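Notes from hallway chat w/ T.B., transcribed later so I don't forget. T.B. wanted the structure written out for a chain they're using in a teaching module, and asked if we could keep both sequence and structure tokens in one place. Agreed to drop them here.
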Amino acid sequence: MTAAGTPPAAGPKPAPTRDELRAHLVRTMIAGGVATPRQNNLLHYRRMAAGHPYYQFGLELKPSWTERSVLEMMVERCGVDPDPRHIYGDDTIDPEITLDTLEAMGERIGAAARRRENVVLATGHPATLTPLYQAVARALADAGCRVLTPAAGWTYEVEVGYGGLDLRRLVYAEPGVAMLEGDDYRTHHTHDPDPMEAMLRELADSASGGSPEAKPDFWPDLAIADHGWAGAAGQAGIDTVGFADCNDPALFAGAAEGKIDVVVPLDDGVAPHHYAPLTAYILDHAGLHPTS
């Protein structure tokens, strides 16, 4: 008790140990046995290998990928079941790979904090991953990083349903996490690289001095993202760390080709509060502390 007879304010929970986080990942099915259907994974591997833009996340991947080589790469980088005869049921994500890449992500974020880099953060999974990104953005801003928020309000149309079109708007959750919102004022899932490409165009057009050779006034040193947001950033040559589910092979392929720096494999669709221990683990490895 304090002198005034009131309990002291509770501080942030300490980061879990590696063993504690491994147990949490498996218990919540963020890694280990996951709910992502194997048949969905294989379909996405086939479509990525075929060069379908929706499954390439804005990356210009080599044409040599085959469904078999994508599966082999996903075994190595994500930990899916290696048996090509396993075509139906659930799949797996190796929690050891998740832990290793969370640590690598934290180290790169820590370097950004120490160097006070310019960063962009964006998610195609706003319903589940927004709190994680917000916590990282706050910690980086507190460390002196510039969190860039270009192209706010930019819009484009996406196909929905049976040939219909819906408007999507680029918005930012405090203190600077990009995502898409519809005319229904709800946030929306997306694989599209277009919004990140719009962000980078606005930054590229911001160069002062009037010379065609002038560099942008602000350019990201680091992108922390997923889906097409991460793919477009990596394709633009920006250091990129991100998250991907086992049915999203493009970012892993981008990492294999050297365009993406770190990809953390996880189920990206569980309840948001289950990612809190991962957030604490990332920030701990970055040498940062969560802020309110």
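Follow-up for T.B.: The longest helix spans residues 95-115. Might be a good example for the class.
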